[in-house]
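Record format v2
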Amino acid sequence: MNATVAALTSRSLLGRKRTLVLLLLPAALLGLCTLARVLAGLDPDIEQALNGPLAANLLTAFGIAILMPLLGLIAGTGAIGPEIDEGSIVYLLAKPLNRYSIAITKLVVAIGVVVLFGALPITVAGVVLTGELGTVTLGYGVGALAAGCAYSAVFLALAVVTRNAVVIGLIYALIWESLVGGVVPGAQTLSIQQWSMAVVQELLGDTAQRLSVEAAVGFGTGLALLTLVTVTAAAYAGNRLQTLPLHDNS
Amino acid sequence: MSTVALEQVSRWFGNVVAVNDVTMHIGPGVTGLLGPNGAGKSTLINMMAGFLAPSAGSVTLDGRPLYRDQEIYREVGLVPEREEMYDAVTGWQFVLANAKLHKLPDPAAAARRAIGTVDMAAAQDRDIRTYSKGMKQRIKMATAIVHDPAVLLLDEPFNGMDPRQRLHLMDLLHDLGDQGRTILFSSHILEEVEQIAGRIEVMVSGRHAASGDFRRIRRLMTQRPHQYTIRSSDDRALASAVIAEQSASGVELVTDKLGSSTVHVQATDFSAFVHALPQLASRHGIRLLEVRPADESLESVFSYLVAR
């Protein structure tokens, strides 16, 4: 970790228009959940559904499946991609700094952003939907944190490797995880979303079945894969920074 | 006192050879790296800055290979060609951040000194995005000298500067060179280089074309054979008169399809020929209609040096 790298990174990550998008996504989730809560107050049927699988479904579909990958994509690529594109990364690289420490610092900043704009709002959304900081709320909060770490690390590494990281990341998150994963069961085992749902399912315990929360992989597998992917991606990003070919104008 | 040594360095990218068998030693003082665009100057600087491995040969700083060694940046400062910085921060914050990244014992004092050296104290609290090109160049310079490096590499530092800023930077490089630092800057303009560089290394098409002080480079460039295309009232008479001159080594009388002719002259001594031509024309009663030097582009001037 390097405090100066962290300060410069968060400055450029939050200093642009992208902050607006970062705010918009959790605001939409909270708005939706508040609406569901208000409607539940008016209609007993909805209230019953909300006490059943509906709350969990909302948190899965909008929180884990949409909010977290998009935030991970913005924060992960944004923490390093623009600097590489513009060439300003040279100011970090022309210093007696360990490359792994640069990569890990940037990852920590990205994770901080997804916690602030993703995992925390999801926890708040859980409180709004269930009315308590109980098993469901905490399960989804921790699941979102796990997803955020993995997405940030993968997309950060992707941004070090290619300039098309945002496009490739979107294709992965929206097409592979959501579309293909929804149709082809095998694709679900290779999905950060499903690994994170395994964490959620484990934390929900017996409640999981009642709320029909079911991940495509077991808890042990999910946790191991999340850890493996996060650590490997961070190490790979650091390694690539050792020999990053700087863009040559001529 | 530090020396950057390149020994038989080549660098290729796929099929393209960017730098071809270059040997040069950059010692204390100011050295200018001169060459047209695409000559391999940036590739060379990237290798000296440790960002690029030579495909063959070695690039060392006082005997230590530069590539992939982060510790060299304690001794090396780099001013990159590209303008982009972290522009959401002020000049002061950015230079201070660079001082902290170097883990200097007193980063604030170092930043203050560097900003003072480049004369940017008055504008240090403005966001970098509001700076002019010349101001950005000076802040870039401040980040490169904040850790008091023994070696300073500058990639096209004069690009986009107005004459006053140019003079200021020239003075600054001069002073830094006089302090015994090893300064290397690249440029494609001879006049720029000869004003401050004690020594000039010329690159053309990836090859090391010439090296020496500016007088030597100047002489090489002006004493090369010059070619002229001449039209006159009597081309044949002119051709025979020109070949009798000591300063000319070749004459060709070219007639095109329409029957109009021109004389192509190869002059060995540029200034002698320019003096002799009008005299011999008037002696023979020939009227000169057009005298045009052929191929005076920088590239062709440099190419001559390579072919030599």
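Chain A touches chain B through 32 residues (CB under 8 Å).
The first helix of chain A runs from residue 3 to 14.
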